[in-house]
Amino acid sequence: MNYYPKPMSKLIKELSKLPGIGPKTAQRLAFYLFESSRDEVLKLASAMVEAKESLKFCDLCGHLTQDSPCQLCRDQSRDQQTLCVVEEPKDVIALEKTREFRGKYHVLHGALSPLEGIGPEDLTISKLLQRLQTGEIREVILACDPDMEGEATALYLARIIKPMQIKVTRLARGLPIGGDLEYIDEVTLSKAIEGRQEI
What architecture is domain 80-199? Predict the structure, then answer.
């Protein structure tokens, strides 16, 4: 039995397709939009359409941009010899917010996942290798997620990049600032012990 009028049911159904949005949240969002002014709803719809129509991926690095090459690729003040490889454009944003990394990026647009049928040809690995063959890059930082797919992707990339005489590094892994040892999972603790540093 359908408890809502057809337009509300359709809105809830579409909203629930968004990642992280379950039926209850979709219902709350639908009612929020219904109770909002027409202008507010049109602003949201307009922003969604504008983003969809005007954004694309940078031809060089794969990051989200309006113009290609993107702002980060055009920035000549960045370290041209260091390349940070990430899975998604949102990872570039996370790293940029730290203001620590000043090199270039390469976005894979996913991670290797044989169970989901995602292989090297489904990612931008061939573009990465083309960039590395120019001889300009001296270090590749593999900043893949610390999960099974990210680990598999990093190991695969390291294996094909090392023979090119390019230094390959990984982001350090370990304990979060402010964390208590008793609440840290075993894998994180073991990685922290493995990557310990002299002080």
Answer: 3-Layer(aba) Sandwich (3.40)
